[in-house]
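[job 4417] fold queue: 2 targets
>>> target A
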Amino acid sequence: MDYKYIEQLLERYWNSQTTLEEEAILKAFFCQDDIPASLLPYKPLFTYAKAEEENVLGDDFDARMEALIGEPVTVKAKVVTLRQRMMPLFKAAAVVAIILTLGNASQMAFNEEGDEMPAAVAVTPKVHNGPSVAMGDSVKMDTLKKTVAVSAILK
């Protein structure tokens, strides 16, 4: 058999040039059982709509779904207080405070450990002779021994 007309219709179908009647002809042709092997790959494209028409939901679908779901569950609204809203901020502030406290404590520990010098590295103490902001000009501070020597106040 010659299927040249069907092939021409397919070519027009791919170019979007077919009418509704020509598409109906293609659907009717591909719903047949006797289709040549060369046109067989196109069969699912045209028979899909007919196969889906058979899978329509019945009239009792809503009743069956409601029976499966059961009684509706009432949802209770939860009241959120200001304290509950602010709790993440309180937690973040606590974490920052802990980190700052630990950092300060570790810095103090490192500063205290750095004061002790081994006997092999005996160095003469350095005296800061420059002006001091906290104690005024008349105070000299020994940085290694952490002692303060008051210079002559009256000059």
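>>> target B
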Amino acid sequence: MSADERDELPALTVGSVARDLRDGRTGDVMDVHPGRVWPRPVGGGREWDAGPDDIRPLTAYERHDARGLRTLP
């Protein structure tokens, strides 16, 4: 992913949905602090710790796909 593409993504905030680039896991962002992000698997489960460069917010299409909705409203 280029820097320009990354700039077009939504902000990584509590409540957003993100993908861990290290292993592809997708999770709801539970907390964000400088240098750390804590997502939890979509649908529940144990939070994990990631660095801000290891995780990126999902696009609108990816969010719907991650939640099993498959189509945009």
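[job 4417] complete. Note on B: Residues 60-66 form the longest helix (7 residues).
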